[in-house]
User: Which sequence fits this backbone?
C-alpha cells in the first residue's frame, strides 16, 4: 500500500465495459422498462401516443427509472425508440397495433427531402430525459444511451414497417448501392450527432441496436452494418474518448467475430443463438461481452431460468461480462421472475 | 479402357449429393413452384383451398413440374407443405391470408390425442404425386421429396401459426422438456414414416426443412434440432442406404458446423447469411453444400444477381455444390430473372 488515496471505484457496469472481470458480473436487461411492469402501463396511459410518451422527459425519465427502482439493475437504459431519428429527419412516424408505421422512403429523392438539421432541436427532449435520470439514479448505476444502427433504422424507413423478407430495402441496396449509401450516410451522421447529444447530456455508455444485422449476406453486412458502425465508433471515440459503445448486431451468427474485430465497438451484445463457448473463446478474448439469456426463459422462470443463468455466469464470468438477455424483455414476463433473476445475480460467483 | 460397359451417368444432382464436383454445378430453387409463376396461379385457382391443392395428385404433380418445364432445373421438388404432417396426425389445419392456422397443441394431453397411424392413409396422395412426377420428369432430373423437421413443425403446432418470439413452444420446451419430448418423438416417427413413403414412391433424395432452427440456444438446438434429425437420418440410412438427406437448419449461424458434423445429413443447405468462405473451408470439406443466393437478388435481377451468382459458383464450385437460394423464391420474383439465372448457370465454370 502506498499513501495515494484510492480512486473511487468506478460503477460496476463501466468497469466491466472497461475490460475488468468483476466478482459479481453487472447486469441489466434490454427493454427492462416496458409493458411487463404494471407501473409502466399506468405511466404509458398518461400520454396520447407512443412518440409523445418518448419525447416527454418527465414520463420517459420515470419509465427509465422504474425497473432500476424495483430490481436494482446495474444500469438504466434511456427510455426512447430507435425510430425517433427518422422522425427527427422529417419522416412521418406512427405506431399501430402491429408496430411502427412510416411513410416509406423509396428513392434518392425521398432521401434528399430528409433534413439532418432537425436532430438537435427535435431530439432535445431526449437529452432532458437523460439529465433527469442522471440526477436521480443511485451513484453506482450507469445510464446507457442508445440509438438504432443505420442499417436497422433504414429497414424501417424503407419498408415503412416491420418486415419478414426485407424485400424493398435489400432490393434497393442491391440495385442501387450508391443511392442507398446516401441514406446510410445520412443516418450515420444523424446517429453520431444524436449519440453525441446523449453523451453530452449525461449518458455514460451507449448501445447501438442493429436488430436486423442478421438478414444480410457477408458483403452487404460489411458495407451496411460494419462500415457505418465503424464510422460512428470512430467519431465518438474522437469526441468522447473512454465512453464505451456496445454493439448489438442481432442475428449476426457467423459474422459476429468479424463485427467484433472490425466495427470498433467497445463491447458486443450477444443474441440468444450465440453459443456460450464461442463467446468465451472467440469474442471475450477480444472485448467484453454482454448477453444472452433467452427472454422466453424470463417468462418461464423457475428452475430452467435459474440453471441457464448460473451456467452463463460460470461460463462467461471469468472474463469481462455483463449479464443481459439475447433480445428484449417480453411483455408476458412476470415481474417476479425478474426479481428472482436479480436475487440469483447478486450472489458472487 | 476395358470392355465393361460404362454405367449410365447418374443424374447431376445425385452426383453432387454423392460428393462429386461437377463441371457445371447442378441447381434448383427452394419454392421454385409457386406464386411467382402465372401458370401456378392458374393451377391454384382450380382447388378450393391450399390443403386440397397439396393433396390433389394431378394438381400437385403439375405444380411440381411447371418450373422444371420452364427453366430446366436439375431437380424438381415435390409440391406439398410441411404442415400436412400435423394434419395427418389429427390436428386441424387451415390457411388464412396471414399464413397457416392450427388449433394449438399445448400440453401432453393434446399430444396424446394425436395419432401417428393416420400418416400412411392421409398422406398417400403425396405418394401418388411423386409417382406421377417420376413418370414425366426428364431422365436427368432428380425428384426431391421433403418434410419439415420436427422442431420447425412443432413450432407451428404449438404456436398455432407463425410466430415472432416462439414464446409458447420455447416456454413448453424449457418448462417441461419431457412432455415436449413426446411431441418431438411423435413428429420424428411420423417424419421417418412419411419420408420413407416418399422414397418408396420414387423420391430420389429428401430435404428436411428446419426453418426455425435459428431461434434456439445451443443446448436446445442440440436436443430439438440435431437429435431428432440424427434419428431421422439414421432410420432412413438403414432402410434406404444411399438416398441422400439434405438438411436445412435455416438461421443456425454459429451452429451450422455442429449440425453438419452431428446430424447425419448427407448435405447441408445454407441460408443467405452463411459466409461463402466459411461454407467452403468448414462445411464443404465435410459434405456437399447447397445454397445460398439471397431470394431478394432474384427479385432485383440484373447485374447484382449475375455478379452474386458468378461469385458463388467460383467460390463453391471447386467442391461438391448445388446452386440454390438461401430461402424460398419470393412471390414478387419476375420469372425472367429465374430464366436469366438459368442461362448463367448452364455456362461451365
Assistant:
Amino acid at each position: 500500500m502506498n499513501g495515494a488515496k484510492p480512486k473511487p471505484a468506478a460503477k460496476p457496469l463501466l468497469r466491466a465495459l472497461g475490460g475488468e472481470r468483476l466478482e459479481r458480473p453487472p447486469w441489466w436487461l434490454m427493454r427492462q422498462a416496458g409493458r411487463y411492469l404494471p407501473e409502466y402501463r399506468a405511466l404509458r396511459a398518461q400520454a396520447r401516443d407512443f412518440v409523445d410518451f418518448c419525447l416527454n422527459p418527465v414520463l420517459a425519465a420515470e419509465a427509465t427509472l422504474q425497473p432500476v427502482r424495483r430490481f436494482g439493475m446495474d444500469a438504466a437504459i434511456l427510455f426512447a425508440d430507435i425510430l425517433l431519428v427518422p422522425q427527427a429527419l422529417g419522416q412521418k412516424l406512427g405506431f399501430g397495433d402491429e408496430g411502427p408505421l412510416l411513410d416509406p422512403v423509396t428513392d434518392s429523392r425521398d432521401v434528399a427531402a430528409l433534413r439532418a438539421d432537425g436532430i438537435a432541436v427535435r431530439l432535445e427532449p431526449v437529452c432532458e430525459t437523460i439529465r433527469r435520470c442522471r440526477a436521480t439514479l443511485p451513484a453506482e448505476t450507469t445510464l446507457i444511451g442508445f440509438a438504432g444502427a443505420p442499417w436497422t433504422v433504414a429497414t424501417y424507413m424503407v419498408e415503412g414497417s416491420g418486415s419478414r423478407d426485407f424485400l424493398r430495402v435489400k432490393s434497393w441496396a442491391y440495385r442501387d448501392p450508391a443511392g442507398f449509401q446516401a441514406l446510410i450516410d445520412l443516418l450515420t451522421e444523424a446517429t453520431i450527432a444524436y449519440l453525441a447529444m446523449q453523451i453530452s447530456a449525461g449518458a455514460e455508455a451507449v448501445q447501438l441496436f442493429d436488430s436486423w444485422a442478421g438478414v444480410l449476406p457477408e458483403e452487404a453486412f460489411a458495407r451496411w452494418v460494419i462500415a457505418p458502425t465503424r464510422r460512428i465508433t470512430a467519431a465518438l471515440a474522437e469526441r468522447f474518448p473512454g465512453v464505451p459503445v456496445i454493439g448489438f448486431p442481432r442475428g449476426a451468427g457467423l459474422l459476429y467475430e468479424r463485427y467484433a474485430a472490425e466495427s470498433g465497438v467497445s463491447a458486443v451484445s450477444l443474441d440468444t443463438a450465440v453459443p456460450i463457448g464461442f463467446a468465451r473463446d472467440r469474442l471475450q478474448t477480444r472485448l467484453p461481452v454482454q448477453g444472452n439469456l433467452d427472454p422466453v426463459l424470463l417468462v418461464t422462470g423457475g428452475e430452467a431460468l435459474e440453471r441457464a443463468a448460473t451456467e452463463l455466469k460460470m461460463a462467461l464470468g471469468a472474463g469481462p461480462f455483463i449479464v443481459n438477455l439475447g433480445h428484449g424483455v417480453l411483455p408476458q414476463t412476470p415481474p417476479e421472475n425478474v426479481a428472482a433473476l436479480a436475487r440469483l445475480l447478486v450472489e458472487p460467483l
About this structure: The interface with chain B takes residues 165-167, 170-171, 174-175, 214-218, 221, 251-256, 272-278, 292, 294-297, 299-300, 302, 304, 308, 326, 330, 332 of chain A (CB under 8 Å). The mean pLDDT of chain A is 96. Residues 229 and 263 of chain A are 6 Å apart (CA to CA). Chain A is about 50% helix and 10% strand.
